[in-house]
Amino acid sequence: MGPVKVLLVDDEWLVRAALRTMLSGLDDIEVAGEVADGAAVPEAVRSTGARVVLMDIRMPGTDGLTATERLRARPDAPEVIVLTTFDTDDMVLGALRAGAAGFLLKDTPPAGIVEAIRRVAMGEPILSPSITRKLISHVRTLRGDDTARDAARTRLAALTGSERRVAAAVGRGLSNAEVAAELHMTVATVKSYLSKIMRRLDLNNRVQLALLVQDAQ
């Protein structure tokens, strides 16, 4: 398939230059383009064929949250990794709800950014269970209204009993191995349930599922 094409989205040119320098020279990753405003992302993705977007959150004009929502709603959308300064930024939660594959702090070492790009290009989320737990803890302080809670409960009601138990465990931030141990399943069975849950609920990753479970509580 050739190198993974990456689009850099950040309003600070120094950040874009640093990312471009960091990623240049890699055989399996290519910086296909860069833009300074979320409004320019759809056209940039179309023209470059980017498979991964490194998306800043706070930008003048169209911010990264809005850009991520619009991008992930399109068919064959690229994976999005949001970039942030704070790991409890409410906008990061919004981006994850919109389908971003994960987030990176802007002080992440170069090797971590490269590894994240490679992983999401293969369809793997880059949020560890420990970070998922931190997000869940934060979202508990941001409870929505009854309408949002009822909507989340209605979606989860479409699951079978076993699927709901797996979803509830993921909603507490458990890893696949921890879910398997708690529910007396194999890890392969947990993965199979998660695949079915994602398809049934039209979700992109386990973080979206965890946040949906929290919304229902």
Automatic annotation (TrEMBL):
Limits of the Response regulatory domain: 5-121
One Pfam family hit: GerE
Recorded superkingdom: Bacteria
Domain HTH luxR-type: 152-217
UniProt modified residues of type 4-aspartylphosphate: 56
SUPFAM superfamilies the record matches: C-terminal effector domain of the bipartite response regulators, CheY-like
Keywords in alphabetical order: DNA-binding, Phosphoprotein, Transcription, Transcription regulation
Stored Gene3D superfamilies: 3.40.50.2300
PANTHER family referenced in this protein's UniProt entry, alphabetically: TRANSCRIPTIONAL REGULATORY PROTEIN NARL-RELATED, TWO-COMPONENT RESPONSE REGULATOR
Protein name per Swiss-Prot or TrEMBL: Response regulator transcription factor
Keyword Transit peptide among record annotations: no
